[in-house]
Amino acid sequence: MSRRTCVNCSSLAAAFCLVIPESARAACDGASVPSGVQTIDAGGLRRTFVVRAPSEPDAKGKAPVVIAFHPFGTGANYMVNRAPIGRFWPSALVLYPDGMPRDSSRPVPSWQNRAGELGDRDLTFFDAMVAWADQHACIDRARVFVMGYSNGAGLAHLLGCERASAVAAVAIQSGRLTCRPSSAKPVIMNHGLSDDTIPYDQAVEASKAWSTANGCSTPPKSGAPGCTQAQSCASAPVSLCTYPGGHEYDTSFTKTAADFLKTAKP
Predict the structure, then answer these.
(1) Which domains does the chain have, with CATH numbers?
(2) In what order do the strands lie in the sheet with 36-42?
(3) How many CB atoms lie within 10 A of CB 60?
(4) 120 exposed, middle or buried (CB, 10 Å; 0-12, 13-18, 19+)?
(5) 61 CB-side CA count, 13 A
(6) pLDDT tens digits in sequence order for the chain, 266 residues long
């Protein structure tokens, strides 16, 4: 169902009419948020994502949004099962997107990790998902967060760099930073000391880069189990969490990330 709304524009054009979907008009009036698999157009590509709707109202009124990106070769359901954000943040709208093959020679889902790579298809996908959420749910655009694991963490880092004005904070599991942060951003990283796929040193270097962008006097201490914070940060916090494992997803990080994002100040 749609409602036609007419806005007077000028004497030459008597009226310019917009067709506003009923779900968009009523999104902040208690309308149900669509759940399950959703399909949208993003830059001419058919993209899909799984929606986990909020199960309770948010104390601040509009719902925060968390977009969680899966690792190379898997799909949205991997993160649905590994990173149940809603269990620890019931008022959040959580989107779990599906990646796409890089090309015909590598027909498994993946994400771009550098600006300009793959025609920026995944930056465009992010933009389209946020627009969808804004239309179909009552969201707080100032609290849109990204989270990723491995290849998906690389995209989350990239969004923190390339979509700094749209991303409120970033959560990284076993990722590699391939961009140079130019804006302060709350960031939490989790990495295994024995990671042979993306070495732990990559997390240490990323924490230093974000600490510089955030105006911190000293980056987080590294090498010891647990989470440490950068010191005297002028603009936003940086946290580095360490565990003794390898490149596997650390399921305890889901709650740690949710708690960090809840307190992040846009």
Answers:
(1) 1-31 (no CATH), 35-263 (3.40.50.1820)
(2) 36-42, 45-52, 93-97, 63-69, 139-149, 169-173, 187-192, 238-243, 226-229
(3) 11
(4) middle
(5) 6
(6) 333 333 333 333 333 333 333 333 336 877 789 999 999 999 999 999 999 999 999 999 999 999 999 999 999 999 999 999 999 999 999 999 999 999 888 899 999 999 999 999 999 999 999 999 999 999 999 999 999 999 999 999 999 999 999 999 999 999 999 999 999 999 999 999 999 999 999 999 999 999 999 999 999 999 989 999 999 999 999 999 999 999 999 999 999 999 999 999 87
Task: Look up tokens 């169902």; give the residue.
Answer: 1
Is-contact 206 193, C-beta < 8 A?
A: no
User: Which DSSP category does 27 fall into?
Assistant: G
Do 223 and 199 touch, CB atoms closer than 8 A?
no
205 vs 191: CA distance, rounded Å: 12
Per the document, the length of the chain is 266
* Model confidence, pTM: 0.89
CB contact burial 150-171 (16+ within 10 A = b; e otherwise): bbbbbbbbbbbbbebeebbbbb
Tell me the C-alpha distance between 145 and 7, whole Å.
34
